[in-house]
Structures are given as C-alpha cells and as structure tokens.
Amino acid sequence: MTLFYAKEMCFKLPNGQRLFENIEIKLKKGDRMVIQGPSGCGKTTLLKCLAHLIPFEHGECTLENASIDKFTVPNWRTKVMYVPQTPVDHPGTPNDLFKMVRSFASQKNRTDHGDPIDIARNWGISDDHFAETWSNLSGGEMQRCALAIALALNPQVLLLDGND
C-alpha cells in the first residue's frame, strides 16, 4: 500500500520561472528517498511544499490515499513533518519546544509520543542539552535535538532537509 504520494507538483517563483514541475513521489511504509541536486535547485522548497508549509502552484499530496482535505493543515503537518537543515533558534530549551508542540491540538490526544532525550542519547547527546537554551547549543547539537524531537513526535513521513 502507498503511504505517501505526491503527483504533478509544480512551484513557480515570483518572477514566473518554474523552480520544479511535474514531480512525482510514491513511498511505501519503510521507504527512504534521497533528493539530490545543486544548491538552489528547489530541494528545500519541494520538501516545504510536501509538508504544506508553503503553497505550490499545482499538484496533490496524499497520505494513505487521503488528500489534505481529509486532514486539517496542522494535522497534516503532524503526520508529514519537515525538519530544516539549519536549526531554528527557538526560544527556551529543547524540552520547552517538545512540551509546546505536544500541547498543540493536533498532538494533544496522541499517545504514541516517544522520548526525545532517550532518542538523542543514542547519538551522544547528553540529557543536559535538552535543558539548555537553544542559543547555548552548537549547530550540530541543535540539529540532533530537533531531529530527536521530530522522531519522538512519531510522524508517518519525515522530511529531512540537510547538507550533502
């Protein structure tokens, strides 16, 4: 069964130039896909479109054969989660962010959350990092904390934006 399907995805820049068009992605549970290309070719924009973080010109995404119309946008983003390549400097600590996201209506009634601290321990991140402000963490520590939080939120599709 297809878990995630995107078809005919097109994105037009403000100057009218198409950044990408007619992209098709079909993933089953457990699939991994890598999108490679030179800087500026639209990889990040495509991922943000798939997560419905930015509007696209044309196309459709489905999750388990249901379009976004079946979900609210926040619920879609709970199921199809984007993690940026450059960590966002959030206020507070990674623990604060995890607690805040879990309080969102789209997350509130879920019982399948993991523990980001347990996840991050496997990558050499100490428990203390989750109690430090984001600005006190290195870029790599921020990235691993953000990824651990995303994994603990247990999305069905995880869109990871990163460097080569």
Automatic annotation (TrEMBL):
<dbReference type="InterPro" id="IPR027417">
    <property type="entry name" value="P-loop_NTPase"/>
</dbReference>
<dbReference type="GO" id="GO:0005524">
    <property type="term" value="F:ATP binding"/>
</dbReference>
<keyword id="KW-0378">Hydrolase</keyword>
<dbReference type="GO" id="GO:0016887">
    <property type="term" value="F:ATP hydrolysis activity"/>
</dbReference>
<protein>
    <submittedName>
        <fullName>p-loop containing nucleoside triphosphate hydrolase protein</fullName>
    </submittedName>
</protein>
<feature type="domain" description="ABC transporter">
    <location>
        <begin position="21"/>
        <end position="161"/>
    </location>
</feature>
<dbReference type="InterPro" id="IPR003439">
    <property type="entry name" value="ABC_transporter-like_ATP-bd"/>
</dbReference>
<dbReference type="Pfam" id="PF00005">
    <property type="entry name" value="ABC_tran"/>
</dbReference>
